[in-house]
UniProtKB/TrEMBL annotation:
Organism annotation: Candidatus Nitrosotalea okcheonensis
Residues annotated as domain Cupin type-2: 33-90
Protein name, UniProt field: Cupin type-2 domain-containing protein
Pfam families listed in its UniProt record: Cupin_2
InterPro entries registered for this protein in UniProt: Cupin_2, QDO-like, RmlC-like_jellyroll, RmlC_Cupin_sf
Length: 141
């Protein structure tokens, strides 16, 4: 598996795979272009943490809207609906997430290199690896 790849225009690097953490979590580093972000989703297998390295982000976390900047940490409890939008200057974030999530990013990235990924396809892959979308996956555009 490639450790660094393009995922909908975001450069994702797998820092630690689930198999390297005893099956407990995965660590990712993402370099986001401006004004992008995922659809609203939850992680039923575990919590997710975002350490903001560069840029500004707006998070929806449950029923809260949170503005974050470098040095901030966002902790998303298990099954909490969340999404974010990257600010106008893009951003960089370190993500500690539930097990196997790196496989979602890697598989969707591989499919994007060879063709189109439908919303349904991406939702199925996401669910297989512990991410459940709560709205359309027509995101990262």
């Amino acid at each position: 598996m490639d450790r660094t790849f393009d995922f909908h225009g975001t450069l994702v690097t797998i820092k630690s795979m689930t198999c390297e953490t005893g099956g407990i979590y995965t660590i990712l580093y993402a370099v986001h272009p401006p004004n992008t972000g995922p659809a609203l989703h939850v992680h039923p297998r575990g919590s997710e943490c975002f350490y903001i390295v560069k840029g500004g982000y707006k998070f929806i976390l449950g029923n809260k809207l949170i503005d974050v900047t470098p040095g901030d940490l966002v902790v998303v409890p298990t099954n909490t609906p969340h999404k974010f939008t990257v600010g106008n200057d893009g951003g960089e974030v370190l993500i500690i997430s539930s097990p196997d999530l790196e496989n979602y990013f890697s598989q969707v990235s591989s499919l994007l290199r060879t063709g189109t990924v439908t919303c349904e396809m991406e939702s199925q892959i996401a669910q297989k690896y512990g991410q459940v979308f709560l709205e359309s996956t027509n995101h990262w555009k």
